Amino acid sequence: MVISLQWALVRPVALLRITADRESYREYMRLRESPHPGATGREVELRIGRLAGRPVWVREGTGDVDRVWDVFIDSPHLPPAKIQRRGLPLVWDVGARTGMASAEMALRWPEARVVAVVDDPADAALARRNVQPWDDRAEVVEAALTPESLNALEGPPAYVWIDAGGAARELITRDTGWADGLAAVKVRLAGDYTAEQCAADLERLGFTAKSAGDVVLGVR
Fold this sequence. Notes:
This protein is of the alpha/beta class. The protein is built from nine helices and nine strands. The protein has helices spanning 2-18, 22-33, 64-74, 81-85, 100-108, 121-130, 147-151, 168-171, 195-204; strands at residues 43-47, 55-59, 90-94, 113-118, 138-142, 159-162, 184-188, 208-212, 215-219. It has a seven-stranded mixed β-sheet with strand order 5-4-3-6-7-9-8, sandwiched between helices.
């Protein structure tokens, strides 16, 4: 009864904000509940309401399915409105994995060039597929999630979203030249890296930092 009520409450939100049509909604719900046996890794197309009906592909039986909700409902990758109003000509998505957040940012900010940094070849291939509608200004860079990789990118970016797992701490504590001129950054915490530690590291770089849940925002 509780589960049925939860799905009843989720349904209108999912139809309007996640999936753009009933077929994609049914497929999304199936993927959440019970992937086909032996189908792990099979790519499935979902048309996304938040992408104006454009598709993304997710791999069945993987964490990609959870990322659909994370990106298009929770949206931790987005900076505060006041940062968006400054203008975002260059945005980096570090640890982009499937590229869904990069796609959403490319659609949301038509003036932005979006660079998605991905360290896994299979993820990079999927990310390129997911950002393809914006490939004139959305680029996937396959590289290790290290300060050296970020320093090799063209910059400075106006905004950086870091969802790099255990690599996040090193990115903002070692060889941080890539952050010179950066206006705002959000870091998703992972492992034993605490919000207090992350905020202190960002403040050493000249940011004013505050945390909310598993994300720390730094603004200059």
